[in-house]
Amino acid sequence: MKIRTKIAFQFTLIVALILVVFSLSLYYLLEGYTKDEFNNYLKDRAQTTAKLLIKEKNVDKRLLKVIDRNTLSSLYAAEVLVFNDENLVTYSNIDSVNKFPYSPEILEKIRKFKYHEADYQNKKVVGLMYTDEDLKKDYLILAQAEDTYGEQKLERIKDAMTIGLVSSIFLTIIFGFVFAGQSLKPISRINQEVSKITARDLTKKLSTGNNKDEIAQLARNFNEMLSRIEKSFELQKSFVSNASHELRTPLAAIKSEIQVALEKDRTPEEYKEILKSLNIDNQRLIQLINGLLQLAKSEKGDKSLQMVPIRIDEVLFEVQDELQHQHQNYRISIDFEEIPDDDESVTINGNKSLLRTLFNNLIDNACKYSENNMAVINIRFNKSNCIINVADTGIGISKEDQEKVFEPFFRTKNASNYKGYGIGLSICKRIVDIHGGRIILKSELGQGSNFNVILPHL
């Protein structure tokens, strides 16, 4: 079922229920009012008869009967009987009491409750007790009549309400479809615009209409999603392009060296030199591929990564031992700004392998780009974060390049003389993001760089 049809159906159902409840309530209210009005009329007739017949002693019964008989042909002709204590008829406004059937049960209820209203043989019946103060006698007055006019009026009201209800529901269905179509028009427009957007052209954006309602908010959110998808596609294209370019260089060098080696026979020493050169290029290729794999893994944001409490100083000391073992000329200093009172201040919830990669890249860069091959690491903490500062006195980074150094494959101009692929810092940024932290760079050309890694501790 289409949304338009569903909205129109639900709208019609709600309106129909409201109209039905309103119509029924109004009808029963009018029915009760009509019944009360007619019962009051019968009550007045009974009281009037009692006053004229019992209280006014000089009133002639025959004259009263003549008057009542003349009113029997009217629309509200009421039949009146007066009973004494023994339930014998002392007065009747009709010639024969047999023509005026009544229920003994109703008489008992009238005597019991002093006043009673009932329905008997399609007629409304009202009975009351009247006391003759002079004779100290009780009389029961019974008045009944058929409410012809009231029933006709209620029948006409019922017909009018039925016609009105059916007409209203029919109009509600029509207007429901019209209004649902108008309300869903912006969504139909969005559907048409979305159908024109392809993977080759993500620059198209949806119209946000009046920029005020929920449809406009939906269009804005969709445009933001398109922008993120476009950015992801651009990163993917850039990744493939740069990875292909970086992989081509060592592979081309390996191919050239193999071709040169095969041009003529060479001595064992020459072959050894060629193999050494091939091994160096192969190591570069392995490092590049490992870097690309780490970058791809960090960009993927693997949710299955195991996060456990880890002391950040222990990770730093392990990285220090590893780098100094690989590079004898590296000098790495690690110190606390102040000694922590408890382990939680320097313990974070993280993945040890990723944290080792993070600090390995930062410390290796600090040593590699400094003439003295020295990196100074300072550890400090506050109420919520553990802050690790990695500083060097190397070549530094210009202000215009500082915003780009965390992008994959970006390398500053002054770093072209150093080995690298521009992958390390982008991996560091992604690892810090995975751990819910921040990385802040402060640097000046020729004066070195400071990387502040801020990670939430336990």
TrEMBL record:
Entry-linked SUPFAM superfamilies: ATPase domain of HSP90 chaperone/DNA topoisomerase II/histidine kinase, HAMP domain-like, Homodimeric domain of signal transducing histidine kinase
EC class (word): transferase
Pfam families in alphabetical order: HAMP, HATPase_c, HisKA
Chain ranges of the HAMP domain: 181-234
Localization of this protein: Cell membrane; Membrane raft
Superkingdom per UniProt: Bacteria
Membrane topology qualifier: Multi-pass membrane protein
Gene Ontology terms, MF aspect: ATP binding; phosphorelay sensor kinase activity
Domain Histidine kinase: 242-458
Transmembrane segments: 7-30, 160-180
UniProt keyword list: ATP-binding, Cell membrane, Kinase, Membrane, Nucleotide-binding, Phosphoprotein, Transferase, Transmembrane, Transmembrane helix, Two-component regulatory system
Catalytic reaction list: ATP + protein L-histidine = ADP + protein N-phospho-L-histidine
Primary localization class, coarse: membrane
EC number assigned by the record: 2.7.13.3
GO CC annotations, alphabetized: membrane raft; plasma membrane
PANTHER family: SENSOR HISTIDINE KINASE TRCS, SENSOR HISTIDINE KINASE YKOH
The protein's name in its UniProt record: histidine kinase
Organism the protein comes from: Lacihabitans soyangensis
